């Protein structure tokens, strides 16, 4: 097994090593996939989503898992659907022990799961059965959770519905964004996944393995839409803070600034802070208040301070810099 570099924590060698098909696309999968490689497991194939269509000569960068696989000269397979008969046949031809799935973007059919001797494991970024779905990190933040974690499940045809075979918790920092939390969860998932692989290597294939998920405790985490970022200023300051942090890096929280002349400007809100100010009686939510170089907005229960924002088509900036170039009249409103 290659030695770890200074930036890579050491990984214990697999005993016994398995022949594994990795299935993933996004950045959440890369730390665990690389740990599986460094542990000495044989990577039979890396299955990932097809490359996005290039609309310019430069085009989008390759997806993180594709870039990682290319870096290590691993075979790549990118079918439009992993469940097509041709794709199922291609994966079955690897004669692998296991499918390991993380941040892939497709749901595997029973036929696809049957292509490996031991079926599949899936690393998911929540404490299942909470936050099943495509955006577990964002929804945990948006709902104000103080703790989240990672789960490895033995895969079944139901989305995130298999028995839990390994799970670890992680406290949520009160100031971090979804992108920052996802990075930390991706690292936490490494040891959780390797532990699950070690246990799987000792599984007799007959006895019950893992903890069944409680259907009464299931919550959903559907894929976010751009409209989810639109701030409703009638919410509490706490809920607005959750939303701003949960929507980064995508789709980002935003508001519409309406001025007295009827013009409208979209502002992406990058950072807010709680304030001990209370709005004057009768103040409508969304009413701004400027105090020197500080920008406050009335919300459902208090005033929230906007610290950083980004006007449409412009760079991100401190609220003070925005106010210097865009003074707010008394009748301006955030909607």
Task: Report the mean per-residue pLDDT as an integer.
Answer: 92
Q: Helical proportion?
A: 10-25%
Query: Would you list the SSEs in sequence order as H and E?
Result: EHEHEHEHEHEEHHEEEEEEHE
Unreliable residue runs: 1-6
- Number of domains as seen in the coordinates: 2
Shape: elongated
Number of E-state strands: 14
Q: Assign the CATH topology of the largest domain.
A: Rossmann fold
Taken as a percent bin, the fraction of beta residues is 15-25%
Rg over CA atoms? 23 Å
Largest sheet: 7 strands, mixed
Distance between the termini: 57 Å
Q: Count of helices?
A: 8
Question: For this structure, what is the CATH class of the largest domain?
Answer: Alpha Beta
CATH superfamily of the largest domain, please? Answer: Formyl transferase, N-terminal domain
As laid out across the biggest beta sheet, the strand order is 3-2-1-4-5-6-7
Structural class: alpha/beta
CATH architecture verdict of the largest domain: 3-Layer(aba) Sandwich
């Amino acid at each position: 097994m290659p030695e770890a570099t200074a930036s890579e924590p050491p990984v214990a060698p697999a005993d016994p090593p398995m022949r594994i098909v990795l299935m993933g696309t996004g950045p959440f999968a890369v730390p665990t996939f690389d740990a599986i490689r460094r542990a000495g497991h044989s990577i039979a194939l890396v299955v990932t989503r097809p490359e996005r269509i290039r609309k310019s000569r430069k085009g989008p960068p390759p997806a993180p898992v594709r870039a990682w696989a290319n870096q290590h000269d691993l075979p790549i397979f990118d079918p439009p659907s992993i469940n097509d008969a041709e794709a199922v046949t291609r994966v079955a031809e690897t004669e692998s022990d296991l499918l390991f799935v993380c941040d892939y973007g497709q749901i595997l059919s029973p036929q696809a799961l049957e292509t490996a001797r031991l079926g599949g494991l899936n690393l998911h970024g929540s404490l299942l059965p909470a936050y099943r779905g495509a955006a577990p990190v964002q929804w945990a933040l948006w709902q104000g959770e103080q703790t989240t974690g990672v789960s490895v499940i033995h895969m079944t045809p139901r989305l995130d519905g298999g028995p839990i075979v390994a799970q670890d918790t992680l406290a949520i920092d009160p100031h971090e964004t979804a992108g920052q939390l996802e990075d930390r969860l991706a690292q936490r998932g490494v040891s959780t996944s390797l532990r699950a692989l070690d246990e799987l290597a000792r599984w007799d294939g007959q006895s019950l393995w893992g903890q069944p998920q409680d259907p009464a405790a299931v919550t959903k985490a559907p894929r976010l839409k751009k409209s989810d970022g639109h701030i409703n200023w009638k919410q509490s300051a706490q809920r607005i803070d959750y939303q701003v942090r949960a929507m980064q890096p995508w789709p980002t929280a935003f508001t519409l600034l309406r001025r007295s002349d009827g013009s409208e400007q979209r502002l992406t809100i990058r950072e807010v802070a709680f304030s001990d100010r209370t709005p004057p009686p009768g103040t409508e939510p969304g009413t701004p208040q400027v105090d020197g170089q500080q920008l406050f907005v009335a919300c459902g229960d208090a005033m929230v301070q906007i610290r950083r924002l980004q006007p449409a088509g412009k760079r991100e900036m401190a609220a003070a810099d925005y106010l210097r170039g865009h003074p707010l009249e008394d009748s301006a409103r955030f909607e």
